[in-house]
Every structure is written in structure tokens, then in C-alpha cells.
Design brief:
With 742 residues, the chain is of the alpha/beta class. 31% of the residues lie in helices and 19% in strands. The N and C termini lie far apart (73 Å). The N terminus is likely disordered. It binds beta-D-glucopyranose.
Length: 742
């Protein structure tokens, strides 16, 4: 039976629609009464239906709702779906929702669109390495344009979890170890996905996840307990979430972990008091996958009903997948265990999200662009290639081995990732397809001159001890003028639940590398991986190492662009690379301790078997040219609490090639009432310099940015001495001091 919209819903649709010309706040105030009257129309079951989110399944013709999904839609027993998309298909489901359910409330379609929808861009960790927030914003913009054309309204991205632990597989999904870089990237992604107007049919709701400290899992084991200080929570893990909220993020997803005994799906203080209260977040809080149900194994809820009550009380609006809100919460409301106002509040957030997306105005607005017009366009591919190049980090280049000549003679392309199509995309590749990806072998073949021979051998395996492929690789290397090895991790060795206790090259890869190295042919290594790896042997023996992360659909071409010098590398590490796994957690913004490491002094904070420093520090990354830093200067020796310090440095391209450089600004609070990090990133700029040219790079450092959480965890701006560092990495810096006065 097809039924027209009920009169009530028609009136509400008008009231909840767009308000041309109104300011966002005024428009929001105008629609709140309409949301209230819609709420007043709803039964308890219909309300809880809005809070239920179910997953799709892969059907014969694409992602579909589970068996019975349409019945649920008609019965108003579901408010949103995850992993269900397709322009025509979602349009039909939407029609069922608005025409055949009692109140005609439109559905939301959500998906993990993490680093592209079909045009897959570099993984978030790689985007962080680009130190290019505009690039990250544009990539998210393109992802939103593609995803919305396929009927999606909502992405579960960006993941803004910092991590100092490369064992944790999800480090690949975040922006590395630094709260400032993480905050800048978080805001850029939110702007990219959401644009200026969420109601545009080409923008989508973003989700900052996973709230909070998920990356602090003990032992790097996904989902594990997190036990951190209040200070670390506020100074390290919360800032990127705050930045996302300030950028207007529409949704927040709590994390699977607990913090100091309280699972995040039951953390009323952080969700209600901090996120909503202090920060004024008025979007929707969506649980993580079965996160509500997991309150039972966490041991804070005896059964499903208790889990639902705890989560709703804590402020978790939508229950992803568990079905608990719909199945178990009605009884809890009826017998008084949960006040219905908690349900109403959650529903209000969901309806508000639907209103912001413009769905009450036109439930089919996201089905208005032809998918084929905007999906995997030449322009998006070209941008993916550019962004991948910008994200690569040249870890080492002794003797200028790179770039290679296109007429090198013979090049041996070796390694298990040389022709690994799917790996180029990395994890969480949404609607990405392996067949869209360009492999390094293809990229190299397309780049070299007609008279250059390309030999290929896979050589090694990711598992086991089989070295039978070595011989072919060695034979190829012997015939070649250069051997380029494509090594690292395949895409399923990082991302969710893919944690490792070792940070070496898995399987027989390092042995292969040693065998090829022994041929005496010059060796270049290109790494693909989703986490910092610990590769001391490579650092000692291989002259050139390029970190390419998971570079996306144009990965192979982008790698060739860099290898053969059509473009120069300029990315910088967003996370420290340790010497071995025993150094973890290792991060540049550590404390000084009472016994800072000192050469030759035993009773200082270090190891007896390896140096205490990382193999490659945060911010490290070379170029095909040399940059010189000079003349670091401040516009004042003293500033007051309301002032802004001007910092300038001269950067000179002293080499022979034009190149980008990421100029980094760090600060240290020399003496404070609590211990402060030895350095904290406070600014960066990616600049381009022609050979022989110099440029003044200026930063503005507001005194306010020197504030921190004092002894009593209140923000304080304490007078005293500070040191400013500017340079090419967290360790390669010039420094100068100044004073903050009363
Ligand atoms: C992940 C989330 C993701 C969700 C939906 C969970 O397992 O932790 O990041 O958004 O699944 O796919």
C-alpha cells in the first residue's frame, strides 16, 4: 500500500525545510519547535526506531538492507542504515520511508567513507604526512561528491584518534601522534565532507571518531583498556575532537575502549558534560558497531536492557547494529528504569541531523546527481595522484641515488608489493575497486623511456619461510642498473583488529632485500605500510628509502613520478619511526624527565641496547634538494598575555631542484608549574622554492596558544621563558627564546 504523507508530516516538512537567508543559529531556532511537534506525534516505538541503525549486506547487485529491512522501514522501526548505498536503491528505500511509514520520516544512509569513496586517496596517516590540510580538505570534498551521488548522507570519518603506538593497526586511519597536526587535519576533513552547507546534495555529515583515547590501547591491542592521566586525555587525545566540533562536525562516535574503568559508551561525563556541555556539540552521537551491547562484556551492564539504559543515559543517541534500543529499551522506559526524556533528547538529535541534511525539505535530494558524472573522474584521479606524491616521505637518499634517470638502462622491479593492486588502496576503501588501482610496476613501465628494460620478480612472501622466489629476483637484479624493491605490509596488516607485536618487514622480505643487496646493484626501497616500521638494517644498508604508505588509486603512477624525478618528495613523518618495537611508545613531544638521556652517563633515561632516539623523528622527510634555515628572529623579546608573537625564518633552497618544504614551528615552555613537553608543534607551512631562492616564512604565535592545563587542570597562561624552534623536522631546528610577561 502506498500512502501519501500524513498532513502532520506535510506541515512539519515545510517547517523543517530550508530557511533561505536565515543565519544557521536563527534557522536552527526556527526548526526546533517543529522538531518538538514531530516528537510529540511519535510513539515510544517510533522514537526508538529513529535511534536504531542496521547494517547492510552485500547482495547480488550491490549493498542491500538485510532480509526484512523494508518491513522495518514501513514500521518506523529503523532510522538509518550503515553500508547501504546505490542511487536508485536508496531512493526506493527512501520512498518506502516517506510514503509508507506512518510519519514519513526520511532515512539516513551512512558508510565508512574514510579516504575516498570510489576514487581512493592516500590513507589518513599519509594525508597527515602531506602536511597539506587544503589537500586533505579537497580529498574529503571529492569523497563527499562521489558518495552522495550514490545515495549516502553520512560518513563515519574522520578518525581523529592520535596514537603513539605503531603496534595498533588503526594508527593508519588517524593523523599520527601530534595533537596540533591532528587538530588541523580533523578540521580540514570536516570542512571537506560537510562544506558550507550540509543541505547541499553534494555534502555529507562527518563523524569524528572514536571518542576518545582509542589509540591509547594497552599493548597496542585493538579494543583494549586505556588507562591514561587526566592531563594526557586533555592535552593529547581530546584536542582533535574539539577541533572537529569547532569545525561544526555533525556526529561523534564513542570508542570501544574504557578510560580508567568507564567504557566510552557509558561515559556520561565526557559525552554529556564535556562534549555537549562545555563544547556545545549539538549533533548526533552514534555508537560504534555493537558498542552498546559491549557494555555487557565490559562488565558494567548485566543484560541488554541495562546496556541500553546506560548508553542512553550517557548520551549515545544511535545504537549501531545491537538492536538493543528497539528491543529492550521500551520495557525499561515503561517500568521506569529510564526516563523517556533521555529517549526524546536522542531522537531530537537524530531529527536535527536529518533536518540539517535537508531531508525534510526533499528526502530525495541526494539522489539528484548522476553517479557516473562524478565518480572516478579524470580530474579526481589526477588529484589523487598529486596528493599521493605530496604524502610520500623520503626517509633516506645517500649520494642522491634518487631520482633515477628514465633512461637508466635496466631496472629490476622486485618485491611482493610491486604489482599488488589491492594494497595500493589500503584498508577501509569504501567502494574502491582493486581494478581501478595502478601498481608500481605499471607506473614504472609507463614512466621509463622506450630504451629502458623493466624486469619484474615478486621474490618474497608475507608469511612463512619460502625463499624459492629469491633466485629470480637476484637474477633480475644482477642484470639491472638499479633494483627497486617494493616492500612493506599488505593492506590487511593494519586497520581494525590488525595489530602486530613486531614492526619489521613481515615474512621473507628482509632476507630478499639482503640477497638483492649482495648482488652489488644499487638498491632503492619503496615502502607501503600502515604504521611506522622499525627498519634499522635498511637504514644502515640501503641508500634510498621512500615511504609511500597506502597511496590510493593512482599509487603506482605517483611512485613513478617521484622515483624518476618528475616531482620531488616533500612529505614529513606525522609519527616517530622507532628503532625497534621495544622503544614503543615513542613520540617527539615527550617530557624531559629529571634525568634526560645523556651520552656516556649511565643513570639517565635510556637503553643499554639501542639509542633512546627514534630511527626517524616526527617531522622528518628529505627532498631532492637541500634547504638551509637561517636568521630565526622574533618581533619581540617579551610579549603579554594578549599579544601575538611574530616569528620569522629565512628558508633557502640551496640545491638544484625546485621543491616543497614543510617548515615547522615548535615551542617549549622552559619552566612551568607542571612539567611540559620538550617540544610541541604549534604551526607549519608547506612552501615551494625554486633552486637558489630564499624566502621568509612567518608564523604568528598568539600568547593564548601557550596556555595549558595547570596544577588543578584549569587552563592557565603562566608568565616565564619559552623557547621557539623552527626547522625541517622536530630534531633539525634553530632556536630562540622569549618571555611571556604578566
Ligand atoms: C569501527 C568504526 C566503523 C564501524 C562501522 C567499527 O568496527 O570501529 O570505525 O565506523 O565499524 O563500519
Amino acid at each position: 500500500m502506498t500512502r501519501a504523507l500524513l498532513p502532520t508530516a506535510v506541515v512539519l516538512v515545510a517547517a523543517l525545510g530550508a530557511f533561505p537567508g536565515a543565519t544557521p543559529v536563527a534557522a536552527q531556532q526556527a526548526v526546533e519547535p517543529a522538531i518538538d511537534s514531530l516528537l510529540a506525534e511519535m510513539t515510544l516505538e517510533e522514537k526508538l526506531g529513529q535511534l536504531a541503525q542496521y547494517r547492510g549486506r552485500w547482495g547480488d547487485t550491490g549493498p542491500r538492507v538485510e532480509e526484512g529491512g523494508e518491513v522495518q522501514i514501513r514500521a518506523s522501526a529503523v532510522g538509518s542504515f550503515l553500508g547501504v548505498y546505490g542511487a536508485d536503491y536508496t531512493r526506493e528505500l527512501q520512498r518506502v520511508a516517506v510514503e509508507e511509514s506512518r510519519l514519513g520520516i526520511p532515512l539516513l544512509f551512512a558508510h565508512d567513507v574514510i579516504h575516498g569513496f570510489r576514487t581512493i586517496f592516500p590513507m589518513p596517516l599519509a594525508l597527515a604526512a602531506s602536511f597539506d590540510p587544503e589537500g586533505a580538505e579537497r580529498a574529503s570534498r571529492i569523497a563527499a561528491v562521489e558518495a552522495t551521488a550514490h545515495g549516502l548522507h553520512w560518513t563515519f570519518a574522520p578518525m581523529v584518534d592520535l596514537s603513539r603506538d605503531p603496534r595498533w593497526g588503526r594508527i593508519v586511519e588517524g593523523f599520527g601522534e601530534d595533537p596540533y597536526l591532528g587538530s588541523v587535519m580533523a578540521a580540514a576533513h570536516v570542512r571537506g565532507f560537510q562544506g558550507d552547507d550540509l543541505a547541499s546534495p553534494q555534502t555529507m555529515l562527518a563523524t569524528a571518531k572514536h571518542f576518545v583515547a582509542y589509540g591509547g590501547a594497552e599493548g597496542g591491542r585493538d579494543y583494549n583498556t586505556v588507562d591514561i592521566s587526566e592531563r594526557t586525555l586533555w592535552e593529547t587525545y581530546l584536542p582533535p575532537f574539539r577541533a572537529a566540533v569547532e569545525a561544526g562536525v555533525g556526529a561523534i562516535m564513542p570508542a570501544f575502549n574504557e578510560i580508567a574503568g568507564v567504557p566510552m559508551h557509558a561515559h556520561a561525563h565526557l559525552i554529556r558534560d564535556v562534549l555537549r556541555g562545555e563544547w556545545g556539540f549539538d549533533g548526533v552521537v552514534v555508537s560504534d558497531y555493537t558498542g552498546v551491547m559491549e557494555l555487557i562484556p565490559h562488565g558494567v551492564a548485566a543484560d541488554s536492557a541495562a546496556a541500553g539504559v546506560l548508553a542512553l543515559r550517557a548520551g549515545v543517541d544511535i545504537d549501531m547494529v545491537s538492536g538493543i534500543y528497539v528491543n529492550d529499551v521500551p520495557a525499561a522506559v515503561r517500568d521506569g528504569r529510564l526516563d523517556e526524556t533521555a529517549v526524546d533528547e536522542a531522537v531530537r538529535h537524530v531529527l536535527r541531523a536529518k533536518q540539517r541534511l535537508g531531508l525534510f525539505d526533499d528526502p530525495y535530494r541526494y539522489n539528484s546527481v548522476r553517479p557516473e558524472d562524478v565518480t572516478l573522474t579524470d580530474e579526481s584521479r589526477a588529484f589523487a595522484r598529486d596528493l599521493a606524491r605530496r604524502s610520500f616521505v623520503l626517509l633516506k637518499n645517500d649520494g642522491g641515488v634518487l631520482p633515477l634517470s628514465k633512461s637508466v638502462g635496466t631496472v629490476a622491479v622486485i618485491g611482493p608489493l610491486a604489482d599488488a593492486r589491492r594494497t595500493m588502496l589500503g584498508g577501509w576503501a569504501a567502494a574502491g575497486r582493486a581494478e581501478d588501482a595502478v601498481t608500481p610496476l605499471e607506473g614504472v613501465r609507463a614512466a621509463v623511456s622506450a630504451d629502458t628494460r623493466v624486469l619484474h620478480a615478486q621474490g618474497a612472501e608475507f608469511e612463512g619461510e619460502d625463499e624459492s622466489g629469491f633466485e629470480a629476483a637476484v637474477v633480475a637484479a644482477r642484470q639491472a642498473d638499479v633494483a627497486v624493491l617494493f616492500l612493506g605490509e599488505h593492506e590487511e596488516m593494519s586497520s581494525e583488529a590488525n595489530n602486530r607485536t613486531s614492526l619489521d618487514l613481515p615474512g621473507t622480505q628482509e632476507n630478499l632485500l639482503r640477497a638483492v643487496h649482495e648482488t652489488g646493484t644499487p638498491v632503492v626501497v619503496v615502502l607501503f605500510n600502515g604504521r611506522p616500521l622499525a627498519l634499522p638494517w635498511l637504514d644502515e644498508n640501503v641508500p634510498a628509502i621512500l615511504e609511500a604508505w597506502f597511496p590510493g588509486v593512482e599509487g603506482g603512477n605517483a611512485v613513478a613520478d617521484i622515483l624518476f624525478g618528475d616531482h620531488g618528495p616533500a612529505g614529513k613523518l606525522p609519527v616517530s619511526f622507532p628503532r625497534n618495537v621495544g622503544q614503543v611508545p615513542i613520540h617527539y613531544n615527550h617530557k624531559n624527565t629529571g634525568r634526560p638521556p645523556a651520552e656516556g652517563e649511565k643513570y639517565t633515561s635510556k637503553y643499554i641496547d639501542v639509542p633512546w632516539t627514534p630511527l626517524y623523528p616526527f617531522g622528518h622527510g628529505l627532498a631532492y634538494t637541500e634547504f638551509e634555515y637561517s636568521g630565526l628572529r622574533l618581533d619581540a623579546e617579551r610579549i603579554g598575555p594578549a599579544d601575538t608573537l611574530g616569528v620569522e625564518v629565512t628558508v633557502t633552497n640551496a640545491g638544484r631542484r625546485a621543491s616543497d618544504e614543510v617548515v615547522q614551528l615548535y615551542v617549549r615552555d622552559d619552566v612551568a608549574s607542571v612539567t611540559r613537553p620538550v617540544k610541541e608543534l604549534k604551526g607549519f607551512e608547506r612552501v615551494r622554492l625554486e633552486p637558489g631562492k630564499s624566502r621568509t616564512v612567518s608564523f604568528h604565535l598568539p600568547a593564548e596558544s601557550l596556555a595549558y592545563y595547570g596544577l588543578d587542570m584549569e587552563r592557565v597562561l603562566e608568565p616565564g621563558r619559552f623557547t621557539v624552534f623552527v626547522g625541517a623536522s622536530s630534531e633539525d631546528v634553530l632556536e630562540i627564546g622569549f618571555e611571556l610577561t604578566e
